[in-house]
Give the backbone structure.
Amino acid sequence: MMRDMFSIPENYRMYSKELFRQMNGIGIGSLIIVGVISLFVGAVTALQFSYQLGSTFFPEYMIGFIVRDTMIIELAPTLSGLVLAGKVGSNVAGELGTMRISEQIDALEIMGVNPQGYLVMPKILGAIFIVPPLIVLSAMLGIFGGYLAAENYGISPANYQKGLLYLFDPFNVVIMTVKSVIFAFLIASVACYQGFFVKGGALDIGKASTRAVVFSSILVIFFDYIVALVMT
Amino acid sequence: MFKVLDKIGSVVLLFGRIFQKPEKNTMYWQELLRQMNQIGVESIPIVAVVALFIGAVTAVQFAYQIQDFMVPVYYVGFIVRDSMIIEMAPTISCMILAGKVGSNIASELGNMRITSQIDAMEIMGINTPGYLLGSKILAALITIPALIVIAAFVGMLGGLIATVFADISTIQEYERGLRAWFLPFNVRLMMTKGIVFSIILSSVSCYQGYTVQGGAIQIGQASTRAVVLSNILILIADYFIAFALLK
């Protein structure tokens, strides 16, 4: 499937239109859920670190520092990746599975369209283009959520901001971007594979979308570890 | 506005019917055990694998974060233990379970609804919310907290393997960190989260699956909605539990 994807497009207009449609579906469609989740994750991180560090000798502004680094390195890419695996993964697998069961994919093939190229490639490319900006947004909202929670908890905004600016390593953003590109590729390609090769009936579509979510979640966390090991 | 009230009313009525007296205790008991096997036992491998890697990632990344500071090495064990117990084991496991169990439940119930099996049961005099939804929610409530305990344990093991493998600290130092400043209250926090999250993810996906209307495409949409909604609700509940219990 991956090899057949890279044939020359029959009609560039058609492919670019499909690419933009997928970028809209995957990216803009997930904007709200990723936003809400990162806001709350940032808030939880701030709250729980204030609680964890309450018994030790760390200064107060460390909360901002820890929320920033945890969001950028770990939580923004990984949690958004898991949520996107749930949303985009089961969506893509369900869509392609329905097209396979209702023989739309065979119809495309007969019309001379390369189904791997037309259906699979725009989804994977679209995910790779649109997921990294989504994750940048998620990191930003997470840090903002941490700010709100810390203020609520009794940590002054000035201290939180001091922590945010404290010892910033731009390399962490590189780690985040590498992770998000890898996760985007994994989520989209696993879901496309599971959906594209569905056999059977309606029940099997549901199974394929569950499998897509499970496999891509495991792979996201597995590659999270690999990236962390290689890049740190 | 009326649509929202209508929705709330239908949810309340549906879940109210769960608490009716079972028609036949042995049948409900068997269904409960079957669901506990499906939801709990069959999810052990995925939860364990995920927790292993989460623990490893937490250890490696925390070691990377603290390398500029004068923080003693055994802090890695301390942080891995606390992050796993307080946050990672309940939240990440339940998000993974929302993907596996949630979409499974929603598509199974949706399929039964579309093929009129639920109507057939209703006509046979079975209280379908009690038999189908109640057993699933109860099974999730019993097994998922147990899964979370396994996840926390395996996660600390993963942190141990990662620290020793990446030469961050020795086993003895990691163990010292594991024992430092242990608060038994954190375990209670973890169990509270586990109970709340398991109710959320099972009841959301049961509702989404039970109320499917239409055909095969709608089953897929219902299972996507089940996963997305339970993920969002889990993280919102996570914040409020942390807020309420850590004050």
